[in-house]
Specification:
- This protein is mostly helical and 343 residues long.
- It contains 14 helices and four strands.
- The two termini are 25 Å apart.
Length: 343
């Protein structure tokens, strides 16, 4: 009986268990051994498990967390959005172009410019995707592939193919500032970007898990015909989900631009693959109808831990792409196995 309970717990929490194993593995793998000078005084320190690295890890997770939180909605619908990386880059470019025109703003004004730029860019891109899918019945993969190319092309058109820089320092507050300065850490311990991402992810999680709209999303993803016959406006649900996905991607893009204090036309290239991998790793089914923003964050953490740990162990960055590719494949295989088991 206990064996069955353990198997059930392990199956339901395999992602959390895998994350803990990864952290322990990289903690041991990045340990340095040194002597304290006393007899037998041997101490092990881990660069991976250091407080400073853990804080840095949260900032490295930030952009992917934003993209994955929005993408969870679309994948629960049974769709896909491969344009999130390009939409993020476009929002970053637009926000920096606006910032150049408004150099004399307060920190609050700078945040307002960044957020409004993201909402406008994300709203337009998400509305386009949603209308193409609901009204013109274009396959989500093709629609978002078109948006991927259009958004990336606009990045180079608007920026002239070069980075957009020369903005006021206040625009870097959202992505680069920290709270809680100490003598050991004069730059601060708590990144503003981390707090902003936690707030956005919490809102997205609550909207999906605690509201009527969230139940409509799950119903539409489980069986769109039955949901429609039940009185749910499935086209409206699909449109809103694509808008939310694009706005979250755009917010991730302006956070990245704020952190770098410039807009790069090639920014966030390939980030859609990391977001898809994290979302599916977190248990969101590619078949639709099942998933959670909260659990997707465990997938985000796994991706960040692997990249961070391999960097600290000085493993070639090309191998990181190989590992992420294998993780995506494993996540899809596990998803398919779970789907067959439920049938």
């Amino acid at each position: 009986m206990k064996s069955n309970s353990f198997k059930s717990f392990a199956r339901k929490n395999i992602v959390v268990i895998f994350l803990v194993i990864l952290c322990l593995g990289f903690g041991i793998g990045t340990s340095d051994v040194f002597s304290t000078g006393n007899i037998g005084g041997i101490v092990k320190t881990s660069s991976f498990l250091s407080a400073s690295n853990i804080v840095n890890l949260t900032t490295q997770m930030a952009i992917n967390a934003m993209l994955s939180a929005g993408l969870t909605y679309v994948i629960i619908l049974g769709g896909i959005d491969i344009s999130v990386g390009s939409v993020a880059a476009l929002a970053g470019i637009v926000s920096m172009l606006v910032a150049q025109k408004l150099p004399n703003v307060s920190v609050f004004g700078a945040i307002l410019v960044l957020v409004l730029s993201a909402v406008v860019v994300g709203g337009i891109c998400g509305t386009f995707n949603g209308i193409m899918i609901t009204k013109f019945k274009v396959v989500p993969m093709i629609t978002t592939l078109a948006m991927l190319n259009m958004a990336r092309g606009l990045c180079f058109v608007l920026s002239g193919g070069t980075a957009v820089f020369g903005v006021a320092n206040n625009y870097s507050w959202l992505g680069g500032s920290r709270f809680l300065q100490t003598p050991d850490k004069p730059t601060g311990w708590i990144p503003v970007i981390t707090l902003f991402v936690i707030l956005c992810v919490f809102i997205m999680h609550t909207l999906l898990s605690k509201t009527v709209f969230g139940r409509h999303v799950y119903a539409t993803g489980s069986n769109i015909k039955v949901a429609h016959l039940s009185g749910i406006n499935t086209d409206k649900v699909t449109l809103i989900c694509h808008i939310l996905c694009a706005v979250m991607a755009a917010l991730g893009g302006v956070l990245n631009a704020s952190k770098l204090q410039n807009g790069q036309p090639a920014a966030c290239d390939g980030y859609e693959m990391y977001a898809i991998a994290a979302t599916v790793l977190g248990g969101t089914s590619l078949s639709g109808g099942r998933g959670s923003v909260g659990r997707a964050m465990f997938g985000v953490a796994i991706i960040a831990v692997i990249n961070n740990g391999m960097n600290l162990m000085h493993i070639n960055s090309y191998w990181q792409k190989v590992v992420i590719g294998l993780i995506i494949l494993l996540a899809v295989i596990l998803d398919m196995a779970q789907f067959k088991k439920e049938e």
